[in-house]
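Archive transcription. Copying these from loose printouts into the bound notebook so they stop getting lost. Printout 1 of 2:
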Amino acid sequence: MKQNVWNRCVLGAFLGLGITTGIAIAISLIIGDGTYYAVMPQLVQDFGSELNAVLVQTMVSLMYGAIWGGASFVWEMENWSITRQTVTHLLIVSLSTLPVAYLMRWMDRNVLGILGYFGIFLMIYGVVWIFLYLGTKRRVEKLNQGVQQRWNSAE
């Protein structure tokens, strides 16, 4: 299990970096002035240069992705209820999100910014969870139908 979690952390790290890079490219395209915006402008001020800001963002993206990748092990805890899995996963990822979002300036650095960011985070998490839950439920129903059909044909 430890090796599996480690592998997920490594994969998650690189996915996190890829997602961050993709977001930077998308933002640059949306702005559309021909400039590549690798980081938030405030990060350049925070870390003294664009290179320092990009290095920090890269390291944070790798760590953040690793946390999300490692946290996915929670969904394989078959002896846990879906509620326990969801709450545990939500706690791991939301508690890792706050310092990252704060450091990377993904939110305003005040109480309203924190509350707004977590509100948006929880809404997105909830919507994704509902779609995953419904998809899993549908697969389980199909499996049950297949078992029932085999059971009926064996009689």
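Printout 2 of 2:
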Amino acid sequence: MSTHVVGLDLGGTSVKAVSLTRQGVELARGHHPFDLEQPGAFVEAMKTALSALEDQVGTPAAAVGISAPGLAARDGTCVAFMPGRFPGLAGLNWAHALHRDRVPVLNDAQAALLGEVWCGAAQGASQVVMLTLGTGVGGAALVDGRLLQGRSGKAGHLGHVSLDPAGRRGITGVPGSLEDAIGNHNIRQRTAGRFDTTLALIHAHQQGDAEASRVWLESVRALAAALTSFTNILDPERIVIGGGIASCGDTLFLPLRRWVAEWEWQVGAPPVAIVPAELGDRAGAVGAAWHALRESAETESSGG
């Protein structure tokens, strides 16, 4: 009987892959670039990634899971909705593509959350919110130990909460979103063209640039308002923050924790913990592996 599971995380230019034991111990990992302009290249990269890990470990994987952008189908067989990107991804049945009986698919932010719950910053927690701060703001939530998915699979897109009804409409149609308040995608607009990246803005803030500090702290304050709102809606015990912007450490976490502590509704429970993600770019692959392992165990226990 095979003792390892594999998670494959499909990114914009590469596949990140990881093999783990059923206890979450990493056995091998891989990184396989592809050219999205080449038809089918990402499918071949996924096949190569899986084959390479199985060769390294020496046995076929007991279960394989996929993390990918877009909304996963309710039956988990494919990405059902991925507008404007990844030609050929939407509707592609991954079990057929990888020649396996079952390959469950999850949205990448949801998979990252499960990875942090299994092996990272949220181990042992059953009420967790995760945000990834990068080009946009990804999100996911674990409620009573179960991944929040909703009727269409879009639940947990916390970056698209509206903080300003008078703001411009974002990619989901929501005005004044959290993503527009702190995401890297519109940093030039938010800084009147001064900065090309959020990390450059943060560096200027750290160097004492008053205008950079104003813009950065305004963004962090917006994030704090959103997180405080999430504590009232979902009541998490832990909020995990990942993504490239979170790499600035205390420059983000100190003011963020201060504002959330000031605004959080205290009802006798311990205050929410706001912690950095631990798995980095492995989180999606690790979460996809855990999701596949759990689904496989549920199938076995039901006699399926």
